[in-house]
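User: Fold this; tokens only.

Assistant: Input:
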Amino acid sequence: MQEAGEVALKDIVRNAIYERRSVRKFTDEPVSEEDLKYIIEAGRWAPSGENSQGWRFLIIKDKEIIEKLGEISGNGSARRFTGEFTTKRMQERFSGLQDDEKRQAVFQKLVTGNVSRFVATAPVVICVVGKKDVWDVQLDNAACIENMLIMTSALGLGATWVIAPCTDIRDEQLVNELLGIPKDYKAISIVPIGHMDRLPRPRPRLELKDITYLNQFGEPYFKSEEEMA
């Protein structure tokens, strides 16, 4: 019985990871307090260097604040991706996208900042804030946020890891003022959460045989399809 239970648990965790998507469209249904607690608990149990636990969580439900975060996020993304378009980096990134209509739609979504402006439509946003005096604050909080995203997926909810309002110091300062974040803390990311309008299709992943090596880089770990099964 114990072994069967362990297999079932593995399947649950695997499915939560496999079914996680970057969700940018939400329904109007609110996120329950119970689900929010599960998500925060998942973040709280992430590993951190020297058990520093240098994360803090701001639960944002005020619609005006969420809309302002959406504005800051959209403006930050627009500035960043317009720069990429101007320097031709964006064209290089999407050179493999042959469909001209899709490529132009992607460019438009990025340079307008709409890729991040959706934050304004989320019913709840969690801002993850890190203590500046923690040595590996960015790495620790990355582990924390990933835990939160997997738990969100396990709960059947949708979320996206959004760095747009926290990358440029100008946007970060706006977030600090909006949320009253002290100077000894740093806004790491925001995570808009809600019930999914739809489950997006999975993005393709590289095959294990193409990214896994044995002892030396370039020496295949998996020699056959059977070994990967």
